[in-house]
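Box S2. Input/output pair 1.
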Amino acid sequence: MNIRERLDISAYLIIGPENCTQSVEDVISAAVDEGFTCVQIRSKVAPAREMISILKKSAQVIDNLGKSDSVALLVDDRLDVVLAAREFGIKVDGVHVGQSDIPVEVCRKFLGNDLIVGLSANSEETITAADVSIVDYFGVGPLHATNTKLDASEALGFEKISALVKVSPLPIVVGGGVKLKDIPALAATGAQGFFVVSAVTGADNPRLAARELVTAWKK
């Protein structure tokens, strides 16, 4: 069974050097050790070589925890970085793209059938229009207004999330301003997972924050 077949988006961390109070790999190590199931490296400022270096360290800490086969390591947008990292033997498991990024069919062509392609989709139209033979999951948000992604669309709220879950043929992971207090209501929408950035990366104690989020979700 490959990582695409094992994909678990229940606790999904998005992280980059510009939103970390500690090193990226230290935060990833703590979050994965506490039960996070998917990690996406996202940076709008890091050059390709820095991204590759971050991926190498991130893949190593996931492997050190014995979770390389169960925790997916993805990259936001940068298909070129995914391909280059894999050329260097780094275990990167796929890419996540938005509606205006590289088309998912191009990603699938270059990544083959064993790796993961995620797609941002914030409306019924974008969800139902997606080719489900190519895409593995939808990233939906923002749940609330957020400073982490200033170009995000308007906040969806729990009711809209529930409606999108009902029409989606694929698993949905929801984020955008998600805090610990949101987890019960978010789980009640039927979404398959939550994604966070600052709730973990900006926490005084990322390990504790990760533990609390995962525990709340499992309840």
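Box S3. Input/output pair 2.
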Amino acid sequence: MEVFKKLQLWIDPIVRSGPEAMAVDEWLLEIATLPVLRVYRWHGDWASVGYFGKIASARASIDGVRWVRRWTGGGTVDHRVDWTYSVVVPQGEPLASLRGSESYRAIHAALADTLTAEGIGAHMSRGAEETGAALCFENPVSHDLIGGDGRKLAGAGQRRSRLGLLHQGSVAAACCDDGAFQKRAETLVDRLSRTVELFSLRLDPQSLAQKVARYERSEWTNRR
């Protein structure tokens, strides 16, 4: 079942720092008129902590990285070893009005089909595997994806605002090859919608710089 009537795909051509990657997602939510699937890479060694996460616990769990706090919830993620994507859903779209667990499940069902098409076994967790660990991939919660070996394959954080829904997701099965990176994006977008168009965004430097500055501030990163 398709999640969106129409979906735009943006394979971000720029490899971005942690603060810039987060700022772009927030800005997308402000300006998007249709749902957007954005797939992107990180410039440098970055990890992210969820909006409600404790930075001290995050730093104790991963060494050798720079930190950025996400606007969404969820656990601590090492982005040196993942495949990262975001789904931006403007207000008025049916998915934006669903409960968090329902929108999470809908996107992860499409992602499970995507990984299965690659030959990676994946099924949705019912929450029984939850551990409470700070590290995202050591704490499968309800509707996360679990691999055939019982380990967590994919998780996400969400944020709702008057503008809509932002879903920031991470897949532990990273794609290093450019072809595989793009192929996964194309498969996922096809699972989410039958009608897809390529999206190209010309970022306003001033607006983006203001948002980047907030994510760069130590007060934001260390707020908890």
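Caption for Box S3: Residues 45 and 80 are 6 Å apart (CA to CA). Residues 100-117 form the longest helix (18 residues).
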